[in-house]
Give the backbone structure.
Amino acid sequence: MPETILAKNLSFHPVILAGGRGTRFWPLSRKRRPKQLLALDGKQTMIQQTVARLLPLVPPKQFWIITNQDLRPAITKQLPKLAKAHVLAEPAGRNTAPAIGLAAFLLLRENPQAVLGMFPSDHVIADEERYRKTLQRGIEIAAAGANIVVLGIQPTRAETGYGYIEAGGAFHGEILRVRRFTEKPDVKTAAEFVSAGNYFWNSGMFLWSARTLAEALQQHLPRTASLLEEIAAAFGTRRFDSTLRKLYPKCENISVDYAVLEPRSAKGEQVSHIFCLPADFGWNDLGSWTALHEHHAAKSSPPEGNLVTASGVFLLNARGNYIHAPGKFVAAVGVTGLVVVETADALLITSKEHAQDVGKVVKYLDEHRLHKLT
Protein backbone atom coordinates (compact mmCIF):
# COMPACT_ATOMS: atom_id res chain seq x y z
CA MET A 1 0.00 0.00 0.00
CA PRO A 2 1.47 3.44 -0.91
CA GLU A 3 2.31 5.56 2.10
CA THR A 4 -0.06 8.28 0.95
CA ILE A 5 -3.18 6.07 1.10
CA LEU A 6 -5.09 5.65 4.34
CA ALA A 7 -6.72 2.37 5.30
CA LYS A 8 -10.04 2.07 3.47
CA ASN A 9 -12.03 1.92 6.68
CA LEU A 10 -10.65 5.26 7.93
CA SER A 11 -12.51 8.45 7.06
CA PHE A 12 -10.25 11.45 7.63
CA HIS A 13 -11.29 15.09 7.36
CA PRO A 14 -8.65 17.84 7.70
CA VAL A 15 -10.04 20.99 9.32
CA ILE A 16 -7.82 24.01 8.67
CA LEU A 17 -8.12 27.07 10.88
CA ALA A 18 -7.21 30.04 8.74
CA GLY A 19 -6.69 33.12 10.81
CA GLY A 20 -8.85 35.63 12.61
CA ARG A 21 -8.57 38.83 14.59
CA GLY A 22 -6.59 36.92 17.21
CA THR A 23 -3.68 36.41 14.84
CA ARG A 24 -0.25 36.93 16.35
CA PHE A 25 0.92 38.80 13.27
CA TRP A 26 0.99 42.55 13.20
CA PRO A 27 -2.27 43.82 11.67
CA LEU A 28 -1.97 45.03 8.10
CA SER A 29 -3.78 47.78 6.29
CA ARG A 30 -6.96 46.66 4.56
CA LYS A 31 -5.28 47.79 1.37
CA ARG A 32 -3.04 44.74 1.68
CA ARG A 33 -3.78 41.05 1.89
CA PRO A 34 -3.97 39.54 5.39
CA LYS A 35 -0.86 37.74 6.54
CA GLN A 36 -2.43 34.30 6.38
CA LEU A 37 -2.72 34.70 2.61
CA LEU A 38 0.79 35.95 1.98
CA ALA A 39 3.47 33.71 0.52
CA LEU A 40 5.71 33.81 3.58
CA ASP A 41 7.65 30.68 2.67
CA GLY A 42 7.71 30.18 -1.07
CA LYS A 43 5.43 30.95 -4.00
CA GLN A 44 2.32 29.37 -2.50
CA THR A 45 0.46 31.01 0.35
CA MET A 46 0.56 29.31 3.73
CA ILE A 47 -2.94 27.89 3.42
CA GLN A 48 -2.21 26.56 -0.07
CA GLN A 49 0.84 24.78 1.32
CA THR A 50 -1.20 23.35 4.20
CA VAL A 51 -3.78 21.88 1.82
CA ALA A 52 -1.18 20.65 -0.67
CA ARG A 53 0.71 18.54 1.87
CA LEU A 54 -2.54 16.93 3.08
CA LEU A 55 -4.06 16.24 -0.35
CA PRO A 56 -2.15 12.96 -0.83
CA LEU A 57 -4.09 11.61 2.16
CA VAL A 58 -7.65 12.56 1.22
CA PRO A 59 -9.64 14.05 -1.68
CA PRO A 60 -10.52 17.78 -1.73
CA LYS A 61 -14.18 17.10 -0.85
CA GLN A 62 -13.14 15.99 2.66
CA PHE A 63 -11.43 19.27 3.61
CA TRP A 64 -13.03 21.91 5.81
CA ILE A 65 -11.77 25.47 6.32
CA ILE A 66 -12.84 27.63 9.26
CA THR A 67 -11.93 31.26 8.63
CA ASN A 68 -13.45 34.74 8.90
CA GLN A 69 -15.60 36.80 6.57
CA ASP A 70 -12.69 38.94 5.35
CA LEU A 71 -10.57 35.96 4.30
CA ARG A 72 -13.22 33.65 2.85
CA PRO A 73 -13.36 35.16 -0.67
CA ALA A 74 -9.57 34.96 -1.06
CA ILE A 75 -9.47 31.39 0.27
CA THR A 76 -12.15 30.11 -2.08
CA LYS A 77 -10.28 31.75 -4.96
CA GLN A 78 -6.92 30.27 -3.96
CA LEU A 79 -8.37 26.78 -3.32
CA PRO A 80 -10.84 26.26 -6.16
CA LYS A 81 -10.85 22.44 -5.82
CA LEU A 82 -12.29 22.58 -2.32
CA ALA A 83 -16.05 22.63 -1.84
CA LYS A 84 -17.15 26.24 -1.26
CA ALA A 85 -19.76 25.04 1.21
CA HIS A 86 -16.90 23.63 3.31
CA VAL A 87 -15.21 27.04 3.65
CA LEU A 88 -17.04 28.46 6.66
CA ALA A 89 -16.70 32.03 7.86
CA GLU A 90 -17.11 32.79 11.54
CA PRO A 91 -19.45 35.78 11.97
CA ALA A 92 -17.43 36.59 15.11
CA GLY A 93 -14.05 35.31 16.26
CA ARG A 94 -14.57 32.72 18.99
CA ASN A 95 -11.20 30.94 19.20
CA THR A 96 -10.45 27.31 18.42
CA ALA A 97 -12.99 25.41 20.55
CA PRO A 98 -16.11 26.67 18.73
CA ALA A 99 -14.32 26.54 15.36
CA ILE A 100 -13.19 22.92 15.53
CA GLY A 101 -16.33 22.05 17.48
CA LEU A 102 -18.54 23.22 14.63
CA ALA A 103 -16.70 20.91 12.25
CA ALA A 104 -17.15 18.03 14.73
CA PHE A 105 -20.92 18.50 14.96
CA LEU A 106 -21.21 18.84 11.18
CA LEU A 107 -19.36 15.56 10.64
CA LEU A 108 -21.16 13.86 13.53
CA ARG A 109 -24.38 14.00 11.48
CA GLU A 110 -22.64 12.34 8.54
CA ASN A 111 -20.26 9.84 10.15
CA PRO A 112 -19.62 9.81 13.93
CA GLN A 113 -16.52 7.66 13.39
CA ALA A 114 -14.90 10.15 11.01
CA VAL A 115 -11.55 11.42 12.27
CA LEU A 116 -10.96 15.16 12.31
CA GLY A 117 -7.52 16.67 12.13
CA MET A 118 -7.11 20.24 13.35
CA PHE A 119 -4.43 22.16 11.44
CA PRO A 120 -3.47 25.83 11.81
CA SER A 121 -2.70 27.44 8.46
CA ASP A 122 0.62 29.05 9.41
CA HIS A 123 2.84 25.99 9.88
CA VAL A 124 5.94 25.06 7.91
CA ILE A 125 6.78 21.37 7.44
CA ALA A 126 10.17 20.39 6.03
CA ASP A 127 9.72 16.62 5.56
CA GLU A 128 6.23 16.17 4.14
CA GLU A 129 6.52 12.42 3.60
CA ARG A 130 7.39 11.85 7.25
CA TYR A 131 4.65 14.29 8.21
CA ARG A 132 2.03 12.19 6.40
CA LYS A 133 3.35 8.97 7.89
CA THR A 134 3.10 10.51 11.37
CA LEU A 135 -0.46 11.61 10.67
CA GLN A 136 -1.40 8.14 9.47
CA ARG A 137 -0.24 6.70 12.78
CA GLY A 138 -2.17 9.33 14.71
CA ILE A 139 -5.32 8.84 12.68
CA GLU A 140 -5.28 5.13 13.45
CA ILE A 141 -5.04 5.84 17.19
CA ALA A 142 -7.81 8.46 17.05
CA ALA A 143 -10.07 6.02 15.19
CA ALA A 144 -9.46 3.19 17.67
CA GLY A 145 -11.60 4.63 20.48
CA ALA A 146 -12.43 7.77 22.44
CA ASN A 147 -8.86 8.94 21.98
CA ILE A 148 -7.33 12.38 21.46
CA VAL A 149 -3.95 12.59 19.77
CA VAL A 150 -1.72 15.67 19.82
CA LEU A 151 1.43 15.99 17.76
CA GLY A 152 4.26 17.02 20.07
CA ILE A 153 7.43 18.80 18.96
CA GLN A 154 10.75 18.33 20.75
CA PRO A 155 11.57 21.79 22.15
CA THR A 156 14.81 23.46 21.08
CA ARG A 157 14.61 26.49 23.36
CA ALA A 158 12.66 27.90 26.30
CA GLU A 159 9.92 29.35 24.11
CA THR A 160 7.18 31.21 26.01
CA GLY A 161 4.87 31.61 23.02
CA TYR A 162 3.95 27.92 22.77
CA GLY A 163 1.96 25.60 24.96
CA TYR A 164 3.72 22.57 26.46
CA ILE A 165 2.73 18.92 26.81
CA GLU A 166 4.03 16.95 29.78
CA ALA A 167 4.37 13.34 28.64
CA GLY A 168 3.70 10.53 31.08
CA GLY A 169 4.18 6.83 30.59
CA ALA A 170 4.58 4.98 27.31
CA PHE A 171 1.39 3.75 25.67
CA HIS A 172 2.43 1.83 22.57
CA GLY A 173 5.70 2.12 20.69
CA GLU A 174 6.57 5.77 20.37
CA ILE A 175 3.14 6.92 21.59
CA LEU A 176 3.14 8.53 25.04
CA ARG A 177 0.35 9.20 27.48
CA VAL A 178 -0.27 12.87 28.30
CA ARG A 179 0.00 13.97 31.91
CA ARG A 180 -0.96 17.62 31.51
CA PHE A 181 -0.96 20.70 29.28
CA THR A 182 0.54 24.05 30.22
CA GLU A 183 -0.24 27.13 28.15
CA LYS A 184 2.56 29.63 27.44
CA PRO A 185 4.67 29.47 30.60
CA ASP A 186 7.06 32.19 31.74
CA VAL A 187 10.75 32.00 30.80
CA LYS A 188 11.85 30.29 34.02
CA THR A 189 9.16 27.62 33.79
CA ALA A 190 9.78 27.05 30.08
CA ALA A 191 13.48 26.52 30.80
CA GLU A 192 12.61 23.96 33.50
CA PHE A 193 10.35 22.12 31.05
CA VAL A 194 13.07 21.92 28.41
CA SER A 195 15.60 20.65 30.98
CA ALA A 196 13.19 17.99 32.27
CA GLY A 197 13.24 16.16 28.95
CA ASN A 198 9.66 14.85 29.00
CA TYR A 199 7.98 18.00 27.71
CA PHE A 200 7.00 18.74 24.13
CA TRP A 201 5.77 21.83 22.39
CA ASN A 202 2.07 21.66 21.66
CA SER A 203 2.00 21.92 17.85
CA GLY A 204 -1.70 22.79 17.77
CA MET A 205 -2.33 19.75 15.54
CA PHE A 206 -4.90 17.38 17.05
CA LEU A 207 -6.68 14.23 15.88
CA TRP A 208 -9.97 12.86 17.23
CA SER A 209 -13.17 11.30 15.98
CA ALA A 210 -16.20 13.51 15.47
CA ARG A 211 -17.98 11.63 18.27
CA THR A 212 -15.06 11.96 20.70
CA LEU A 213 -14.76 15.72 20.24
CA ALA A 214 -18.50 16.35 20.24
CA GLU A 215 -18.94 14.38 23.47
CA ALA A 216 -15.98 16.16 25.08
CA LEU A 217 -17.51 19.54 24.23
CA GLN A 218 -20.90 18.44 25.54
CA GLN A 219 -19.22 17.51 28.83
CA HIS A 220 -16.86 20.45 29.28
CA LEU A 221 -18.52 23.23 27.26
CA PRO A 222 -22.23 22.29 27.26
CA ARG A 223 -23.74 25.68 26.41
CA THR A 224 -21.50 26.17 23.38
CA ALA A 225 -21.93 22.54 22.33
CA SER A 226 -25.70 23.01 22.26
CA LEU A 227 -25.37 26.09 20.04
CA LEU A 228 -22.97 24.33 17.67
CA GLU A 229 -25.28 21.34 17.42
CA GLU A 230 -28.17 23.61 16.43
CA ILE A 231 -26.01 25.37 13.81
CA ALA A 232 -24.89 22.04 12.37
CA ALA A 233 -28.50 20.88 12.09
CA ALA A 234 -29.17 23.77 9.72
CA PHE A 235 -26.25 22.98 7.40
CA GLY A 236 -27.34 22.41 3.83
CA THR A 237 -30.56 24.38 4.29
CA ARG A 238 -31.49 27.95 3.40
CA ARG A 239 -31.45 28.91 7.05
CA PHE A 240 -27.83 27.88 7.69
CA ASP A 241 -26.29 31.32 7.13
CA SER A 242 -28.84 33.09 9.34
CA THR A 243 -28.53 30.43 12.05
CA LEU A 244 -24.74 30.72 11.99
CA ARG A 245 -24.90 34.53 12.24
CA LYS A 246 -27.40 34.40 15.08
CA LEU A 247 -26.00 31.62 17.26
CA TYR A 248 -22.25 31.46 16.68
CA PRO A 249 -21.47 34.80 18.40
CA LYS A 250 -23.16 33.38 21.52
CA CYS A 251 -20.53 30.65 21.78
CA GLU A 252 -17.85 31.00 24.43
CA ASN A 253 -14.60 32.58 23.28
CA ILE A 254 -12.16 29.88 24.35
CA SER A 255 -9.43 27.68 22.93
CA VAL A 256 -9.88 23.94 22.65
CA ASP A 257 -6.83 23.59 24.91
CA TYR A 258 -8.56 25.31 27.81
CA ALA A 259 -12.04 24.01 27.01
CA VAL A 260 -11.27 20.31 26.54
CA LEU A 261 -7.65 19.26 26.85
CA GLU A 262 -6.82 20.72 30.26
CA PRO A 263 -9.94 19.47 32.12
CA ARG A 264 -9.75 16.09 30.43
CA SER A 265 -6.04 15.64 31.21
CA ALA A 266 -6.80 16.51 34.85
CA LYS A 267 -8.59 13.16 35.12
CA GLY A 268 -5.21 11.44 35.03
CA GLU A 269 -3.09 10.02 32.26
CA GLN A 270 -4.46 6.49 32.67
CA VAL A 271 -8.07 7.49 32.03
CA SER A 272 -7.96 10.68 29.94
CA HIS A 273 -7.24 8.87 26.66
CA ILE A 274 -5.02 11.74 25.51
CA PHE A 275 -1.85 10.71 23.72
CA CYS A 276 1.22 12.56 22.50
CA LEU A 277 2.71 11.47 19.21
CA PRO A 278 6.29 12.82 19.07
CA ALA A 279 6.82 14.41 15.67
CA ASP A 280 10.11 14.93 13.89
CA PHE A 281 9.40 16.35 10.47
CA GLY A 282 10.95 19.82 10.57
CA TRP A 283 8.14 21.90 12.11
CA ASN A 284 7.92 25.64 12.56
CA ASP A 285 4.98 27.82 13.45
CA LEU A 286 5.12 31.09 11.51
CA GLY A 287 2.44 32.61 13.73
CA SER A 288 4.81 35.26 15.04
CA TRP A 289 7.53 37.52 13.65
CA THR A 290 10.05 35.79 15.91
CA ALA A 291 9.27 32.41 14.39
CA LEU A 292 9.37 33.87 10.89
CA HIS A 293 12.80 35.38 11.59
CA GLU A 294 14.09 32.10 13.01
CA HIS A 295 12.82 30.12 10.03
CA HIS A 296 14.30 32.34 7.33
CA ALA A 297 17.53 32.97 9.20
CA ALA A 298 18.06 29.21 9.44
CA LYS A 299 17.65 28.89 5.67
CA SER A 300 19.67 31.89 4.52
CA SER A 301 22.20 32.48 7.35
CA PRO A 302 22.22 36.30 6.96
CA PRO A 303 25.20 38.28 8.34
CA GLU A 304 24.85 38.71 12.11
CA GLY A 305 21.35 37.23 11.87
CA ASN A 306 19.79 40.43 10.49
CA LEU A 307 16.87 39.96 8.11
CA VAL A 308 15.95 43.24 6.45
CA THR A 309 13.40 43.97 3.73
CA ALA A 310 14.08 47.48 2.48
CA SER A 311 15.17 49.48 -0.56
CA GLY A 312 18.56 50.01 1.05
CA VAL A 313 20.22 49.13 4.33
CA PHE A 314 23.06 50.23 6.60
CA LEU A 315 23.93 48.03 9.59
CA LEU A 316 26.43 48.83 12.33
CA ASN A 317 26.81 46.72 15.48
CA ALA A 318 23.34 45.27 14.81
CA ARG A 319 22.52 41.62 15.47
CA GLY A 320 19.53 39.31 15.20
CA ASN A 321 17.03 41.91 13.99
CA TYR A 322 13.96 41.45 11.80
CA ILE A 323 13.09 44.64 9.92
CA HIS A 324 10.33 44.82 7.31
CA ALA A 325 10.11 48.24 5.69
CA PRO A 326 9.64 47.83 1.92
CA GLY A 327 10.55 50.88 -0.12
CA LYS A 328 12.43 52.55 2.72
CA PHE A 329 16.14 52.95 3.45
CA VAL A 330 16.84 51.34 6.82
CA ALA A 331 19.75 52.13 9.13
CA ALA A 332 20.12 49.94 12.22
CA VAL A 333 22.87 50.99 14.62
CA GLY A 334 23.72 49.30 17.91
CA VAL A 335 20.48 47.32 18.25
CA THR A 336 19.91 43.63 18.96
CA GLY A 337 16.85 41.38 18.70
CA LEU A 338 14.40 43.98 17.41
CA VAL A 339 11.31 43.38 15.34
CA VAL A 340 10.31 46.39 13.24
CA VAL A 341 7.40 46.01 10.82
CA GLU A 342 6.02 48.86 8.75
CA THR A 343 2.77 48.71 6.79
CA ALA A 344 0.88 51.40 4.90
CA ASP A 345 -0.75 52.80 8.03
CA ALA A 346 0.94 51.24 11.06
CA LEU A 347 4.35 50.68 12.61
CA LEU A 348 5.27 47.90 15.02
CA ILE A 349 8.41 48.13 17.15
CA THR A 350 9.08 45.35 19.63
CA SER A 351 11.71 42.83 20.63
CA LYS A 352 11.76 39.19 19.59
CA GLU A 353 11.30 38.34 23.25
CA HIS A 354 7.96 40.18 23.36
CA ALA A 355 6.75 39.58 19.79
CA GLN A 356 4.14 37.11 21.08
CA ASP A 357 2.37 40.01 22.80
CA VAL A 358 1.34 41.55 19.48
CA GLY A 359 -2.06 39.88 19.91
CA LYS A 360 -2.70 42.37 22.74
CA VAL A 361 -2.31 45.18 20.22
CA VAL A 362 -4.89 43.56 17.97
CA LYS A 363 -7.24 43.27 20.94
CA TYR A 364 -6.69 46.97 21.73
CA LEU A 365 -7.53 47.93 18.14
CA ASP A 366 -10.71 45.87 18.28
CA GLU A 367 -11.78 47.31 21.64
CA HIS A 368 -11.24 50.86 20.37
CA ARG A 369 -12.84 50.09 17.02
CA LEU A 370 -9.78 51.08 15.05
CA HIS A 371 -10.83 48.70 12.30
CA LYS A 372 -9.19 50.71 9.55
CA LEU A 373 -5.87 49.40 10.90
CA THR A 374 -6.85 45.74 10.92
In short: Residues 1-5, 20-39 have pLDDT under 50 and may be disordered. The longest strand covers residues 199-209. The CA atoms of residues 313 and 330 lie 5 Å apart. The first helix runs from residue 46 to 54.
